[in-house]
Design a protein that fits this description.
Shape: globular
CATH architecture of the largest domain: 3-Layer(aba) Sandwich
Number of helices: 19
Helix content: 25-40%
CATH topology of the largest domain: Rossmann fold
Radius of gyration: 25 Å
Strand order of the largest sheet: 9-10-7-12-13
Number of domains: 4
Number of strands: 19
Largest sheet: 5 strands, antiparallel
CATH class of the largest domain: Alpha Beta
Structural class: alpha+beta
Length: about 550
């Protein structure tokens, strides 16, 4: 189904020579023009489906920038409510027509970086939540792909309610162009279709007597204090819970048991149940408790709680809260002979404070911040940790004769990657080339004094200027080319190593697919700014202290 100012249904009966479009323009009184033939068997109607996909770009080449998104979702709901399943929704602009129409004047850049910014980060109203609850009732999950042109406002804070309550996800392609993010969009659509899914799922979480579940985080509908509804579950979806002691009474064996039971239907129509039981030791020993803290899990939970607090109050209060929590944990572990991995917690917390999720400033637009919040609510623990603390790798010394970096290791079955560098400008050199990745994107930064032979081997150009400028002497060739154009494999061994390293990084973190962006020293574009923002151990990105000073602040309790 397609939509702009009206809904367009298609008759793809295999008996027809070509698909037939049927337009429903009355958004106030929606109806299904073909109640029995809207859904077709893909194998039987494959020719019609492919023919329609080929025609759609031409049919809507002159379409106006109008959207009746809410009505379109309701129309799709009417078509599939008797079956349920996955609904994939694609949007490129603010929905201003039909049901669930949103107000364009909510986009007020003057509120960025102020306490009132949170007003735009909250939903406009509950209409999309109400729609989501209707979808969940008939076991429909929604994945939303939002790809605005330029920096137009789409009100992600309101639209996000659909995937949030139906167990779906939201994929946001900021300032979308086919060259820069087309491959990412394609890969994520493929992943959404091909991954193993569980349908019509419910999950119950039980806990030992004397304890209680205090919070759920993630994309699901909470039906009761321990029961979750997830129409579509898969391995890319993560739920978090926090538990508290209800009574000051320890069990006989000093343990706390948590059990999750997931009931779902697989693709073969089999009803299955998957049960996980965790037995956690409870202790009154302070040293034993502090040394057992997992800093990645702690940072993940604290971040999700901070986002929740931001929505209820404002961003400055959320930032103060998460710093105070980190400070208390660090101070309570100081002086202990075995602090475990607790010393890494300030590093992750500083990373989240400098990220677009929680940093304060007028450079993080409303939709972009909301997109980061949505990602952090569904990512797994290790991917969250990489988001907090990116990985910096050197690429300029791969041609050393004794180096096996960039080569495939038969023993481990993966490509050998360079060692991680500290996230500071002190790790950079003017003749170097560096890659930084945070699980969401890859940025390659080229120093101003880079070896010309390196450029020739990897990019097939004789100078940095030739790489940047197009044939007409334009300003930025890299923004106009796709990654395939930039790194067309020419068989050079050095280029092969660079490609292998990027493939190795992507393999570790799929999904999502991480697009490559290339920038160079003193370019001062948005890509270079993002590169330096990810060097979290330095000052900047909303904080005027470096990591050493922040770590000392956490230890001494300076508020």
């Amino acid at each position: 189904m397609t939509y702009d100012s009206a809904l367009h249904f298609y008759n793809m009966d295999p008996k027809l020579s070509s698909p037939q479009m049927i337009v429903v323009a009355d958004l106030e009184d929606l109806f299904l023009p073909l109640p029995d033939d809207i859904l077709v068997n893909l194998q039987e109607s494959q020719e019609q489906v492919i023919s329609l996909l080929d025609q759609i770009p031409g049919l809507f080449r002159e379409a106006k920038n109008e959207s009746c998104l809410g009505s379109a979702i309701k129309g799709a709901f009417m078509a599939m409510k008797h079956i349920g399943g996955k609904m994939m929704v694609f949007s490129a602009c603010l929905p201003t027509l039909g049901e669930g129409a949103l107000r364009a004047h909510r986009d007020n850049p003057r509120l960025l970086g102020t306490e009132k910014e949170i007003e735009i980060l909250r939903p406009q109203d509950e209409s999309y939540k109400d729609l989501a609850q209707k979808l969940v009732y008939v076991q429909i999950s929604v994945d939303v792909f939002v790809a605005p042109k330029g920096m137009s406002f789409c009100d992600l804070a309101t639209i996000r309610l659909l995937p949030q309550y139906t167990g779906g996800d939201i994929m946001f392609y900021d300032n979308f162009t086919p060259a820069s993010q087309g491959q990412k969009l394609r890969r994520e659509i493929q992943n959404c279709i091909h991954r193993y899914n569980g349908w019509e799922a419910v999950m119950r979480v039980r806990i030992s007597r004397g304890w209680k579940i205090s919070n759920f985080f993630g994309h699901m509908l909470i039906r009761s204090h321990d029961l979750l509804t997830v129409p579509n579950c898969h391995s890319d979806l993560t739920f978090s819970i926090t538990v508290e002691m209800e009574d000051k009474v320890m069990t006989v064996d000093n343990t706390c048991c948590i059990q999750s039971a997931l009931l779902y239907t697989n693709a073969e129509g089999e009803r299955r149940i998957r049960v996980h039981t965790f037995n956690i030791v409870a202790s009154n020993n302070h040293q034993e408790l502090m040394s057992s803290v997992d800093p990645q899990a702690a940072a993940m939970i604290l971040t999700q709680m901070a986002i929740d607090k931001a929505l209820k109050s404002n961003l400055p209060e959320a930032r103060n809260w998460i710093q105070n929590q980190c400070m208390q944990i660090v101070q309570n572990s100081s002086g202990l002979p075995d602090q475990g991995n607790i010393e890494f917690l300030p590093m992750y917390i500083m990373g989240i404070l400098k990220s677009p999720a929680l940093r304060i400033g007028n450079d993080v637009r409303f939709d972009l911040r909301t997109a980061h919040w949505a990602r952090l609510c569904t990512l797994s623990c290790n991917k969250n940790a990489l988001y907090f603390y990116p990985r910096l790798l050197a690429l300029h010394d791969l041609d050393q004769a004794d180096s096996n970096i960039g080569l495939f290791d038969e023993d481990t079955g993966v490509y050998n990657l360079p060692d991680m560098l500290s996230l500071t400008v002190e790790s950079l050199v003017a003749h170097g080339v560096f890659l930084i990745e945070n699980g969401q994107m890859i940025i390659m930064w080229i120093g101003g004094e880079v070896n010309i032979q390196w450029l020739q081997s990897v990019f097939g150009v004789a100078s940095l200027e030739e790489l940047v400028a197009d044939s007409q002497g334009g300003t930025n060739r890299l923004q106009e080319l796709s990654e395939e154009d930039i790194l067309a494999n020419n068989g050079d061994p050095l280029q092969e190593k660079v490609l292998n390293i990027m493939e190795g990084v992507r393999t570790e973190h799929q999904p999502p697919y991480m697009p490559l962006y290339v920038t160079h020293q003193n370019k001062s574009d948005s890509t270079e700014r993002k590169f330096f923002e990810m060097l979290i151990e330095d000052r900047g990105a909303g904080m005027q202290i470096d990591f050493a000073q922040f770590q000392e602040k956490m230890r001494r309790g300076i508020r």
